[in-house]
Amino acid sequence: MMDRPDAFVPEVALVVGAGGPTGGPFIWSALHALEERTGWAPAMASTIVGTSAGAFVAARMGERVDADRDAVDRLATLANAQTLQQGLQTRLAARIRVVAGRVLAAVAPMSRPFAEYTVPEGPYHEGAAAVTVQRRSGRRYRHELRHVADPTAVVRASAAIPGLNQPVEVDGVPHVDGAVHSANNVDLIDADAHRVVVVVSPMIPATGGSLVSRFHRAQLRKELDPWTRDGRSAVVVMPSEAAHAERRDRERYEPEGARAVERLFG
Predict the structure, then answer these.
(1) CA neighbor of 42 nearest in space, from 119, 127, 158
(2) What was the pLDDT predicted at 107?
(3) pTM of the model
(4) Cis omega (within 30 of 0) on the bond before 167?
(5) Where is 31: in which H helix or E strand?
């Protein structure tokens, strides 16, 4: 390997997606397995974007630590985004998925109050952000947790599923689950500023699945275009179709995160 200058900074972006009550355990299982296998710890990421269950993970990440160059090299070799299963016409399906989500956010009933899940107090990772959608306008927001007035409201809003939970007010305006726009929101990452993106996506099976799952996967493929088109390293951790079908069972689904990582190593 060629010598690298001291100024070299191996920037890694981490995207942790939606997945319901069992999504968080899946994500942590996957991240722990990645660290064991490569030496790269998630707190080494320069940017973390969390949606819904992933927003709670982002809030619990702790402060950033210096990236290990060799660990990032090992991580980059796992790039697999080019192999994501195709199916639906990607761009059209992604657009339909976004429009459908915005309609859901605007018209879904207010439903029951949001569960008081615990959101840790800071300090937060300097690059951690949570994604929400403004209920009526459908506009998507990326909130940097270190710079918002009420991080607890932001994280809870990111997981407020329309039709199941009431919206959560952020700066006096109702916001809902960031997964209304996308299960992962990878397109909020600047590909030019990062060497590698790691996407942990508990909501989307790697192959097959329902029609809804196929729309989610088509959107993820579109969001990864800047990485696959330019040959950057994108590592995508997704459950198998069989495991995804049992995602409501935490005891079965949590270890699938680690198994999904092991599959990256062949």
Answers:
(1) 127
(2) 66
(3) 0.90
(4) no
(5) helix 23-38
Q: List pLDDT tens digits, range 140-158.
A: 999 999 999 999 999 999 9
C-alpha 17: how far from its chain's center? 3
Taking alpha carbons only, the member of 238, 195, 239 closest to residue 40 is 195
| C-alpha triplet 119, 120, 125: angle, nearest 5° | 115
Q: Average pLDDT of 158-175?
A: 90
Q: Which two tokens stand for residue 88?
A: 């639906």
Structure tokens at 263: 């599959």
In DSSP notation, 180-241 reads: GT-SS-GGGS-GGG-SEEEEE-TTS-SS---HHHHHHHHHHHHHTHHHHHTT-EEEEE---H
| Residue pair 189/47 in contact by the 8 Å Cβ criterion | yes
Predicted confidence (pLDDT) at residue 2 exceeds the cutoff of 60: no
Q: Take residue 149 and report the two structure tokens written for it.
A: 């007035």
CB within 8 A of 79, min separation 6: which ones? 196, 232, 233, 234, 235
Place of tokens 């697999």: 80
Give the type of residue at 6: D
Query: Tokens for 264?
Result: 């990256």
Query: What is the overall mean pLDDT for the chain?
Result: 88
Mention every residue, 6+ apart, whose C-beta is less than 8 A from residue 15: 48, 49, 50, 54, 184, 185, 186, 189, 197, 198, 199, 200, 201
The helices-and-strands tally (H runs, E runs) of the chain is 10, 8
* pLDDT reported for residue 120: 84
The sign of the dihedral angle between the CA atoms of 122, 127, 128, 134 is positive
Are 126 and 14 a contacting pair, CB within 8 Å? no
Q: Are 43 and 71 in contact (CB under 8 A)?
A: no
User: Residue 151 pairs with which residues in a beta bridge?
Assistant: none
